[in-house]
Sequence to fold (704 residues):
Amino acid sequence: MTTGFHPAEAFTSWGRVVREPHTVARPRFPDELGQIAGELTSEAPGLPVGMRRSYGDSNLNPGGRIIDMTGLDRLIAFDKETGVMRAEAGVSLSQCLRILVPAGWFLPTTPGTRFVTLGGAVANDVHGKNHHSAGNFGNSVTRLKLRRTDGSVREIGPGNALFHATIGGLGLTGIIEWVEFQATQIASAWLSAEDIAFANIGDYFRISQMWKPRFEHTMAWIDCLAGGDSLGRGVLSGANWSSTGGLKPHREDPKLALPVDAPSFALNGLSVKAFNTVYNELKKARTAPYRSHYEPFLYPLDAIANWNRLYGAKGFYQYQCVLPYSTARSATPELLKTIQASGQGSFLAVLKDFGGVPPVGLMSFPREGTTLALDFRNQGERTLSLMARLDRIVAEAGGRLYPAKDGRIPAAMFQAGFPNFQQFRAQVDPGLSSAFWKRVSA
Amino acid sequence: MSASPELEHTAMVAPSNRVVILGALSAIAIATARIYASEGAALLLAARNDERLKGLADDLRARGAAQVETAALDFETGASEAGAHLARWRQQLGGIDHVLVIYGYLGSQEKASSEAGELARILSSNFTSAVAWCEAAAGMMRAQKRGSIVAVSSVAGDRGRQSNYAYGAAKGGLAIYVQGLAHSLAAVGARAVVVKPGFVDTPMTDGLKKGGPLWAKPEAIGKAIRRAADKGGPVQYAPGLWRMIMLAIRMAPAFVFHKTKL
Fold:
């Protein structure tokens, strides 16, 4: 009944590689946070977390304390005229959309899952398919309330140093109590979309260049098994908000759920078949515009709850890097070749061009360039050494990795990728830490 | 809430949405209130903590509630004035269609076995005061010849077990009381329902080992309560599977049951 830390066995992130005991507090009301924050010290630090959709260990604190923020899920204010929403940090983007959409508003940007909290969206400065037009989530945050473990509480906004450290700050600068953001106006919950097949990675760069100014949302799937002339073949999708179709939001519950871990061979077989069907259809039909509700277009994987179990009991890693445009054209094929030769990559990878909107966070991941993301089923040392090979290509190309996806990056590689690292470190709350932070700040 | 003739008319043909929630800050109550809010209902939230009630009221307004009122009070000391409270809330909402009695206190059996104060609190919170509120609400429903009372009991009330028989006895007593009220209200066209949840992932059960197919989210119980306010029999399990489980548990002979640690 009282707030306090309770033991939790095998607490995991989305990738499910690490399964360590933690002690977890689950506050339900903001007035409980003072006491919780007061118990955290540099000797026994804690970490506030949301829905644990980060893949690696940035949301874990093995053997230590976790503050599960999902119980703080109340909206504080929503102005239907201006589209400004203020809500407690544990409110999910999914819940926000249920309120925003019927009133003619949408999230300024959204990652590929709506099952993340507002606090998590800020702490990872998440990006989406509209990055080239909207920037990151943090670009639309107008204000937030931050509680430090020294007992101080402040409301901060753009211009404040702690604010800029908190956007993309991985929950390490304090406990985010609430977030206020500016939503984007929409006339309909529907998108007008087009798909186009590209024969190889060279074609991707050529076509995406033309599609970026035409579409607010773009992203591409690529086939990681194809080599030779077909290296990096795939499908690029673009979409703009439609002006018709009504403002009906998505349904809250996923349609399907995976009750058990899949056998390890299941995934590639399924996705190969699905991809080939789409790819061949597209080649035949060329591009025909179609309409899609935002739900399947922006959140294709949310239809299956626990899709992470597809990778089997040992879990999986995700690898997401961004490369500056100057090197992306040469380094991306190199990454794909390395992955293809290893035979370890997931069948599908996601490719997207980030735009030039400057991030507001000191540690925000996106920068102008091309981002590649794909999954690797956890096969132990073999998988780690492949990712180390990819690291070298990324480092040489002047790129960096996304902390939200990472569970193994060495400190030197991380610090080299984020030039504001030292400035950020000075803003970290000594009472907060994570497995990721312990590794990369060493 | 406006009381245009048109709205009055609608209220008489369709189930209407002016709802009083006692124990509004519990996880189950919040989940229930959010369903009503999304339907544009008028709500009166009662619980002890005024600041938390105000925060929840803002949330429910943003989620679409037409009207949200709050009342900070203690249900045990306030039970003797239940009728007066309800009459005032009825004025505030322009009528009351549903009264949801959701508050309760799990307490500790170990403490209740050795401290009279803890035992008294468990019985008063879950039974004595709860039935006083139900009876006052029933009086109002009899007079208006419509409306429903939904009281939240527990599967713990179906068979006494070593780990929580004080709580179980109080919740079981509440279930019998509400079942009787349902019988008595049937003649005038009003309803009373007791909802018996199984294991629910709420602050009340923090510290227990959770997870597995028998643990429900508060949202699932909220849906069951929302449904129970409009339809169904006087005793409803949530989720429904618990009806079968509790049948088996009630039927288990003592020589088997006593070997368990339940």
Q: What stands out?
A: The radius of gyration of chain B is 18 Å. Chain B has one domain: 14-257. Chain B touches chain A at residues 25, 27, 38, 49, 51-52, 55-56, 58-59, 62-64, 106, 203-204, 206-207 (CB under 8 Å).
